[in-house]
C-alpha cells in the first residue's frame, strides 16, 4: 500500500498524462512564442557573456601594454643613463690620456681631444674565410715572387746604393703631377682601411707608371664590394686587395668615377667600429658604373697591375678558425736569406725607403692605441709606453708616402690616414715605429 500511494503521489506531482485522456497537460510543450523568448534570452545571455569576456580581455591587454610600456621606458632610461655614464667615464679617461701626452716632456707629438675617440673593447666581429680561395691567393703571390719581373725588381732594389737614400722624402714633391698622392680618403663607417689604402697605392703607382698622364683615383669600393677573399667592413688584408688588382683589375673611383665610395661618412672622424655592423649589411658587389660615368662600361674601365708582394716577412691566415697560417715570400725575407745575419731595423727600413723612392707609396699595417685617435701634430709615438697592449683599439692600414728624421736623429714615416682631411695634421701623420716593431708591422704594394 505505501508504494501504491507513492506512485499516485508522483503521478499527480508530475502532472502525469493518461494516454487515454484527451486533455493535454499545461506546460508540457512550450508554445512558439515561449520558444522564441527562450532562444532570445539564451542569445542575449551569451552575448552579454561574450561582451564581459571581451571587456576582461581588453583590460588584461591594456594592463599588459601599460606594464610593457613602463618596463620599456624603464629599460630605455636605464640604458640611456648607463650609456651616458659610460660616455662620461670614457671622455674623462681619454681627456686624461690627452693631458698626459701634452704635459709630458718625453713626448714628440701633440694631442687634441677627439670626441670620436674610443677605448679598447671587443666588438664581437665575426670573420669568415674561404680556405680554398685564400690558398689560391697564397699560391699566386708565390708565383709573382718567382717571376722574371720580380727578379728584375729585386736586382734594382739591391743595386740602388743605400747611401743615395735621402734623409727626408715626400712622394708629393717627387711626383707633383700625381694628385692621388695628396688625396686624403675617408673610410667612414666601414672598417675598409685595407681597401682604401690599397686603392690609394694602386692610384699612386698607376699615375707614377704613366708619367702623370693617368690621374684618376682607383676604386676602393670595387675591392670592398667584390673581393670576398680580401675582407669586409670588419677589416681585411691589403696584400690580397693588391693581388685582386693584378687578377681582376680596379675600375675608377673617387666622386665621379665608375664606382664611388658609398659608405656613410657622417658617423665620426673616425667612425666608431660599432658602426661597422650596419655597413657590413649594406656591403654589396655592383659590377656596373654609376649613371653619371659615361666614359666606359664597368668591364672596360678596369686597370691592372703586374704583380703584388709584401715587403716585410709575414704570414697569412688560411683556415676558417684562424689557427692555420702560412708564410708568404717577401722582399726583406729574400734579402735575409742571402745574408748570414738578418737585416737590422735600419737596413730593412732602407729597403722600404728604396721601394717608395723608386716606385711609389706602399701600405703599412700597425696596431692603433687609444691615444693615436687624438693625434694632432708632431711625430707620433705610443705614450705612455706601459700598458700599450691594453690600449690597442684595432689594427689599421695606412699609406706611406715618405719619411724623415727628427731633431734627435730618430726615424719616422710620413703617412696618409683614411679619416678625412680634418683629422690629425690635415689628414696626415708622422710616426716613429720603434716601439711597434715587435708586433710585426706589414708593408704591401704592387708594380704596374
Automatic annotation (TrEMBL):
A GO BP entry: proteolysis involved in protein catabolic process
Membrane-spanning ranges: 52-77
Keyword Transmembrane: yes
GO molecular function annotations of the record: cysteine-type endopeptidase activity
UniProtKB keywords: Membrane, Transmembrane, Transmembrane helix
Domain Peptidase C1A papain C-terminal: 165-448
One Pfam family from the record: Peptidase_C1
A single GO cellular-component term on record: lysosome
Keyword Membrane: yes
Similarity comment: family membership: Belongs to the peptidase C1 family.
Family annotation (PANTHER family): CYSTEINE PROTEASE FAMILY C1-RELATED (PTHR12411)
Name of the protein in its database record: Peptidase C1A papain C-terminal domain-containing protein
Species, as recorded: Caenorhabditis elegans
Amino acid at each position: 500500500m505505501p508504494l501504491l500511494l507513492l506512485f499516485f503521489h508522483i503521478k499527480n506531482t508530475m502532472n502525469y498524462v493518461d494516454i487515454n485522456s484527451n486533455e493535454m497537460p499545461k506546460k508540457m510543450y512550450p508554445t512558439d512564442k515561449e520558444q522564441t523568448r527562450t532562444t532570445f534570452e539564451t542569445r542575449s545571455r551569451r552575448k552579454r557573456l561574450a561582451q564581459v569576456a571581451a571587456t576582461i580581455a581588453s583590460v588584461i591587454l591594456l594592463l599588459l601594454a601599460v606594464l610593457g610600456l613602463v618596463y620599456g621606458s624603464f629599460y630605455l632610461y636605464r640604458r640611456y643613463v648607463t650609456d651616458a655614464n659610460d660616455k662620461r667615464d670614457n671622455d674623462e679617461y681619454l681627456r686624461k690620456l690627452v693631458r698626459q701626452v701634452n704635459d709630458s716632456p718625453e713626448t714628440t707629438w701633440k694631442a687634441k681631444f677627439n670626441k670620436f675617440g674610443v677605448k679598447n673593447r671587443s666588438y664581437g666581429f665575426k670573420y669568415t674565410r674561404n680556405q680554398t680561395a685564400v690558398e689560391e691567393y697564397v699560391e699566386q703571390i708565390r708565383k709573382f715572387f718567382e717571376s722574371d719581373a720580380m727578379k728584375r725588381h729585386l736586382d734594382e732594389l739591391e743595386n740602388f746604393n743605400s747611401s743615395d737614400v735621402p734623409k727626408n722624402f715626400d712622394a708629393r714633391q717627387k711626383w707633383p703631377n700625381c694628385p692621388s698622392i695628396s688625396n686624403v680618403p675617408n673610410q667612414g663607417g666601414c672598417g675598409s682601411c685595407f681597401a682604401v689604402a690599397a686603392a690609394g697605392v694602386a692610384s699612386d703607382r698607376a699615375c707614377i707608371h704613366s708619367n702623370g698622364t693617368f690621374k684618376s683615383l682607383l676604386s676602393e669600393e670595387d675591392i670592398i664590394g667584390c673581393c670576398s677573399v680580401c675582407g669586409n667592413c670588419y677589416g681585411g688584408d691589403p696584400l690580397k686587395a693588391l693581388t685582386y688588382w693584378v687578377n681582376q683589375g680596379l675600375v675608377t673611383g673617387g666622386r665621379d668615377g665608375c664606382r664611388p665610395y658609398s659608405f656613410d661618412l657622417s658617423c665620426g672622424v673616425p667612425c666608431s667600429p660599432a658602426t661597422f655592423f650596419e655597413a657590413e649589411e649594406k656591403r654589396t658587389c655592383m659590377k656596373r658604373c654609376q649613371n653619371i660615368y659615361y666614359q666606359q662600361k664597368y668591364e672596360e674601365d678596369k686597370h691592372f697591375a703586374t704583380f703584388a708582394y709584401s715587403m716585410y716577412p709575414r704570414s697569412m691566415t688560411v683556415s676558417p678558425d684562424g689557427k692555420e697560417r702560412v708564410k708568404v715570400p717577401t722582399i726583406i725575407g729574400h734579402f735575409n736569406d742571402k745574408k748570414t745575419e738578418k737585416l737590422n731595423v735600419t737596413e730593412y727600413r732602407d729597403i722600404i725607403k728604396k721601394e717608395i723612392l723608386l716606385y711609389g707609396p706602399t701600405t703599412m699595417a700597425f696596431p692603433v692605441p687609444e691615444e693615436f685617435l687624438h693625434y694632432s701634430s708632431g711625430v707620433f709615438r705610443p705614450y705612455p709606453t706601459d700598458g700599450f697592449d691594453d690600449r690597442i683599439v684595432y689594427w689599421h692600414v695606412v699609406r706611406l708616402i715618405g719619411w724623415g728624421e727628427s731633431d734627435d736623429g730618430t726615424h719616422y714615416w710620413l703617412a696618409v690616414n683614411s679619416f678625412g682631411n680634418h683629422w690629425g695634421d690635415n689628414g696626415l701623420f708622422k710616426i716613429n715605429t720603434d716601439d711597434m716593431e715587435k708586433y710585426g708591422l706589414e708593408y704591401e704594394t704592387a708594380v704596374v
